[in-house]
User: Fold this.
Amino acid sequence: MSSTISSRNIDRVEIITIERPDRRNAVDLETARALIKAFKDFDQDDGADVAILTGAGGAFCAGADLQALAAGERKPVDPDGDFAPMGPTRLRLGKPVIAAIEGHAVAGGMELALWCDLRVAGASAVMGIFNRRFGVPLVDLGTIRLPRLIGHGRALDLILTGRPVAMDEALSIGLVSRVVPDGEALTAALALAAKLSEFPQTAMRNDRMSADEQWGLDFDAAVANEVRLGLHTIRSGETMSGASRFSGGVGRHGEGV
Assistant:
């Protein structure tokens, strides 16, 4: 494990933390590579159902490390392969990832947050395409994910202006999933991850995959893909097991399963 990130497992939840608080967790080349490895390891780990990405020292991530760039560090920007300048943003994992955001999640740090499936933020957190100020492009799929998440018009407002987004607006436009008191983002993300981990995993992961993959498919192909993944879930035995538990009285009237 790199010294710039840490990883720990709590009850089938993998917490991956960027450990560069002196740079507001800006991502240099070493950190990008370490994040890719950490998330690939998580995806292959049968002992982890959900991952949480967060940052140390009260900041999520301030984006690419521009000081390292100015000092001569170069990251490859290649349309092929799974390396992206911020690390894992081109990876398509089979399991969900939650961003636990405190402080700034800006520039490439916002692109990291957009890569996650869900975003839980402290009330004073700030998001924004701050790289607009410095001529740094969005190359971690921000121009793709942001319009899909909040709509094209709202996305262009943020992409073109680079303005800061407070959490009341972020919640209202769907940029974040939950807003919690400052300092409680990780705790809230852990509770959410624990809930996801309690569900039957095959159905949840396949439904997530269908929702993600449909963006690249026409309607008929998306229908076929959903059916294919649904049949995989049914054939796994998970659906019949759930039906049997329901028939036995489990999970009715909103009770936990």
Observations:
- Strands lie at 5-10, 13-18, 50-55, 97-101, 104-106, 118-122, 126-128, 165-166, 178-180.
- Residues 219-235 form the longest helix (17 residues).
- The mean pLDDT is 94.
- The chain has ten helices and nine strands.
